[in-house]
Each structure stands twice: as structure tokens, then as C-alpha cells.
Amino acid sequence: MSDDSLAVWCKVREQVDWSSAASVGLAPVRPVVDGLAAWFDGPVRRRDPDRAGRLLAAMTLYRAAASRGEPLTPALLTGWQQLVLGVNEVRLRQSDAFAKDGRERYGLTPHTWQDFAACLYQSADPSVPLPARAARAYLDIAFFHPYPDGNARLALLVLAHVLETEGVRLDEVGPLQTTRYADDPDGALDLAALVAVLIRATHRRATAR
Fold it and tell me: What's the pLDDT tens digit per position in 47-96?
């Protein structure tokens, strides 16, 4: 059996110096173009109109939660995931999960979901720069892999929610659509740096109007 990539990620997560990530200090940021909506209405809709509609509905839900200051919890995510998948009931996975053609295995232990909830709680930690918190939450979804399906879509919504709680929206999300690996601490910080770059670029284009 392959190594437990979730266990690897949990170790990497603690090793990464998230506080060293760039802090943008530009919130709130309201873009000329709503990058997330444009992504769902553009590339996603061209591939699958029904999926696009579900994601746009979930986007509305996460933004309402952010406006109320609701923290990320497994229960909150379950509601979003029902919309993402278009089903009436979603449960956290009950066995190991696999991704990347089986090259990554995400294990399941008696404390997995308690650990997951604790990681989600840390997405609101003000001592960590906003881009790092958003990137870390994205990777938590990717590697905890909480649901049998739709985790990549949920990860993007979670990243956007973390930004939204501080008044930040991106005008471009396409660069975020790249493969990430559980055993890559440099890649984790690179994602945080990318989020910071996208925030700055959004702010620059918004103020140049």
C-alpha cells in the first residue's frame, strides 16, 4: 500500500513557515471582473453547464457565509458540497481516498476529522498572512480529501471564502488550477506567494480604472 499522503501533508503543514509568506495589506479588494464567477461561467460552463450552475450557487452560499463572518467548519462545507455535487446528502468519506491515478493515498484514522476541523479553524488565525491562510486551507481540502468527490472544486471555494472574509476577491483564478503534492513544502509556500501575486494584481487593475 502506498504511503499515507495525508499524514505526510500534516507533517509538511507544521514544517512550513507560513508566517514568512508575503502579506498584502491591501484589503478590501473589489475587482473589475469577478474572477471566480468568470471562471465558472467561462471554462467550467463550456465543459459542463450543469456543473457551472452548481458552482455558482455554491459561490453565492460561501459569500453569504463570509458576510456573516461564519468560520470554516466541516458542517459548513458539507452544505456547500451538496450544491457542488447537486445531491441532497453528503458525508465525510469513510475510507481511504486516492488521487493522481493512485499515486497519493489519503488515510483515515479515528482522529482525522477532528484534525480537519482544527485545521479549518486555523484559517482565521490573524497571525498568519492572508495569502498563506487561503493557500493552506486550499491544500487542507486537497489532502484531507474530505468527500468522495468534488474536493478540487471545494478547495477553490474554500480559498475564496478565506479571502472573502477579509473583503478580498480575485479578478483571476485560472493560475490556481495546477496540481499540488502533499510532500512539497516549497510548493505550499509557492501557492501562498501566487495568491499574494493575484491579490496585488487584482488591486492594481481595480485602482487603475
Answer: 999 999 999 999 999 999 999 999 999 999 999 999 999 999 999 999 99
% of the chain surpassing 90 pLDDT: 89
Return the C-alpha cell found at 108. 483515515
Pairing verdict, β 104-106 and 97-99: antiparallel
pLDDT (mean) for 197-208: 91
| DSSP secondary structure letters along 184-200 | -HHHHHHHHHHHHHHHH
Q: How many CB atoms lie within 10 A of CB 18?
A: 20
Contact 176, 153 (CB under 8 A): no
Q: What residue ranges do the domains of the chain occupy?
A: 5-14+27-204
Residue 1 has pLDDT above 60, yes or no: no
**Do 153 and 55 form a contact (C-beta atoms < 8 A)?**
yes
Residues forming a β-bridge with 105? 4, 98
Q: Using CA of residue 137, residue 142, residue 148, residue 153, what is the dihedral sign?
A: positive
5-14+27-204 folds as Fic-like fold (1.10.3290)
| Selection from 95, 91, 192 nearest residue 140 by Cα | 192
